[in-house]
Design goal:
Blueprint: H1 2-31, E1 37-41, E2 49-54, E3 57-63, E4 70-74, E5 87-92, E6 95-100, E7 103-104, E8 120-123, H2 144-172
Antiparallel strand pairs: 1-4, 2-3, 2-5, 5-6, 5-7, 6-8
Helix pairs in contact: 1-2
């Protein structure tokens, strides 16, 4: 009789331990996920076309808004095959431009040179400018699902403790 009533709290504690272990194991795959690099800028003429390239292959393009602002994303599965630290080059209306500072692809990158305005694009000899971004690695590092598994494990351990408390309290009566 005693083993049957003790089995429930023990089963809950075992489930909690398994859940905690799964949470720790799940932490590694989450870190391998990649986020797109987001490029943006301002100061262009409305309607100008900005295109980004890696190794001469087009990654993404956009046109400047009526305010001269533009934004684009380069996901990890873009046709240009982006890899961490790959140099990004730009064209403005089909003509090569120089990004200041130089842009590189990073998962989830954010502009570090000037977060508010991004990069400046300068066409050779024309002096026209815009912006894009310098990127930094801001990957999750393994949070996401692992945190959920660990939290679930803690809840299950607490439930097992409460169950054991009530079991002992009822069996003492």
């Amino acid at each position: 009789m005693l083993t049957r009533t003790v089995a429930r709290p023990v089963a809950i504690a075992a489930a909690a331990c398994v859940t905690l272990i799964l949470g720790l194991v799940a932490a590694r795959p989450v870190a391998a996920q990649f986020l797109p690099t987001v490029l943006y800028g301002a100061g262009l003429a409305p309607g100008q076309k900005v295109e980004a390239f890696i190794d001469g292959k087009s990654c993404a393009s956009t046109t400047a808004s009526p305010k001269g602002e533009w934004v684009m994303q380069i996901p990890v599965d873009a046709p240009c095959g982006p890899k961490p630290d790959a140099a990004i080059t730009f064209t403005l209306d089909g003509k090569p431009v120089t990004a200041t500072p130089a842009a590189t692809w990073q998962s989830g990158g954010i502009p570090t040179a000037n977060i508010r305005t991004g990069y400046s694009l300068t066409a050779s000899g024309s002096g026209s400018s815009g912006t894009t971004q310098d990127t930094a690695d801001t990957t999750d590092g393994g949070g996401g699902n692992a945190v959920l598994f660990i939290a679930l494990g803690v809840v299950l351990l607490a439930a097992g403790g409460v169950g054991l408390y009530f079991y002992r309290r009822n069996s003492a009566i």
